[in-house]
């Protein structure tokens, strides 16, 4: 589960990480007042307007704008709320932006030798070492993906202690490698340790600050201040039950509606780009099914695991979710009846076929359907389907998985 940047900023603050203040608006009419509030007390007013959307790459897409007067704040806010944002992290048609953060802009100190003092910091789980790690770089900002790709040596990786987390010496080590000096070191260390603590306490899968910046030196802060000005979090959904505060931050309008629906019925569904819908029980079988579709030249439209013991109702819902994807040109049902009984699945297919409403108002499946059943009560299941042939004319039975994959890829015209 992801959250918006403004929520991420609140979370950082609650763990003591310094972040400039701001407020969220959802209409251009609020821009003027939000600008005034964000820049209140600044000798040279400067605010940053930022699209609040669960996708990155906003800076390069023109959806992060520095503005120094209310008229420009209004122009930027209007632009962002009336244009879809397109970045490498959005679908090609872009995403609608519904909320903006209007925050006090931070001054970023120039870096000796060019550029500005922007750093990358993240905590995540490293599958290879099976540990949580801190990932850090001096080359923070909007180019971090490119840097990680072209110059992996510019990325520092520091494992966290499984019990003690990010220890002081380890964080100091990273701070020195990043080039922090004087009072900056203590600030950076405190931020890294707080981020590591947050990561564990909130069951994150990713806790990222990019960029972490140094502000220019002032009389009060001769070494400048270390601040977070953008953050991104992902949370482990299996841990949400014990974090009601985090769960409350979910924004359903940013999620795939089919995935939300599936979640309600206990189905694991992930939308993909192909045209063959898959309905399978068990994640391993679902992956094998997707593999065999690909081996036969097809492309799966989704991953869908109805689970070990889905009800008839859940199966009906699963079909309806698969068929709600207009890209689906054929459906492959692959069920191994263990706990799940084949006759339940068969009844689910029949229900779905008779109840499914097409966009033109008619009922019944329009797309080819290939069914492969095996296991508990398979004979009863096959009989139910045989008897229902008239109701489901697009249905074909398959003898085994290879046969099923061949039939469905042929049916969608691979
Ligand atoms: P992202 O592109 O979605 O990651 O959005 P960010 O919030 O990270 O902003 C992108 C870039 O805009 C940053 O790397 C900074 O260079 C710049 N930027 C963002 N906020 C500020 C700010 O408050 N002050 C200044 N000077 N630059 C900012
Ligand atoms: Mn960023």
Structural write-up:
The chain is of the alpha+beta class. 35% of the residues lie in helices and 22% in strands. The chain has 14 helices and 16 strands. It has helices at 5-14, 31-38, 58-61, 70-82, 144-150, 168-178, 183-201, 244-247, 257-264, 283-295, 312-323, 342-355, 378-387, 401-411; strands spanning 22-25, 47-52, 64-67, 99-104, 118-126, 131-137, 155-159, 204-214, 226-228, 231-235, 268-271, 276-280, 302-305, 330-337, 369-375, 395-397. The strands form 4 sheets. Strands 5, 6, 7, 8, 9 and 10 form a 6-stranded antiparallel β-sheet that branches. Strand 5 (118-126) and strand 6 (131-137) form a beta hairpin. Helix 2 packs across helix 4, helix 11 packs across helix 12 (342-355) and helix 12 (342-355) packs parallel to helix 13. Residues 210, 230 line the site of manganese (II) ion.
């Amino acid at each position: 589960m992801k959250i918006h940047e403004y929520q991420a900023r609140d979370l950082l603050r609650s763990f003591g990480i310094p972040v400039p203040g701001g407020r969220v608006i959802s209409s251009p009419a609020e821009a003027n007042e939000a600008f005034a509030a964000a820049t209140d007390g600044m000798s040279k007013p400067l605010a940053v307007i930022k699209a609040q959307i669960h996708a990155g790459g906003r800076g390069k897409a023109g959806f992060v704008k520095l503005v120094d007067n209310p008229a420009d704040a209004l122009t930027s806010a209007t632009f962002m709320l009336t244009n879809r944002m397109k970045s490498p992290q959005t679908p090609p048609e872009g995403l609608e932006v519904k909320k903006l953060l209007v925050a006090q802009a931070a001054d970023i100190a120039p870096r000796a030798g060019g550029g500005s003092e922007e750093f990358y910091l993240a905590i995540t789980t490293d599958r290879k070492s099976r540990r949580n790690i801190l990932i850090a770089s001096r080359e923070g900002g909007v180019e971090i993906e490119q840097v990680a790709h072209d110059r992996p040596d510019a990325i520092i990786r520091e494992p966290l202690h499984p019990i003690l987390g990010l220890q002081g010496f380890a964080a100091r080590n990273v701070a020195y490698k990043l080039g922090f000096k004087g009072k900056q070191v203590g600030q950076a260390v405190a931020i890294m340790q707080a981020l590591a603590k947050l990561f564990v306490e909130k069951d994150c899968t990713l806790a990222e600050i990019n960029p972490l910046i140094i502000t220019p030196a002032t009389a009060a802060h001769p070494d400048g201040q270390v601040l977070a000005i953008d953050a991104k979090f992902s949370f482990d959904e299996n841990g949400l039950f014990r974090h009601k505060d985090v769960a409350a931050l979910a924004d359903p309008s940013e999620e795939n509606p089919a995935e939300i629906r599936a979640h309600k019925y206990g189905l694991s569904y992930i939308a993909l780009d192909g045209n063959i819908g898959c309905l399978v029980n068990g994640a391993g079988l679902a992956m094998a099914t997707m593999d065999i579709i690909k081996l036969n030249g097809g492309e799966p439209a989704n991953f869908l695991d109805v689970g070990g013991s889905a009800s008839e109702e859940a199966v009906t819902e699963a079909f309806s979710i698969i068929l709600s994807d207009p890209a689906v040109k054929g459906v492959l049902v692959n069920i191994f009846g263990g706990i799940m009984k084949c006759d339940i699945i068969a009844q689910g297919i029949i229900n779905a076929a008779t109840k499914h409403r097409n966009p033109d108002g008619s009922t019944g499946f329009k797309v080819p359907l290939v069914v492969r059943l095996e296991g508990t009560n398979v004979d009863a299941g096959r009989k139910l389907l045989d008897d229902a042939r008239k109701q489901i004319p697009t249905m074909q039975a398959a003898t085994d998985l290879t046969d099923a994959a061949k039939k469905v890829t042929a049916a969608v015209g691979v």
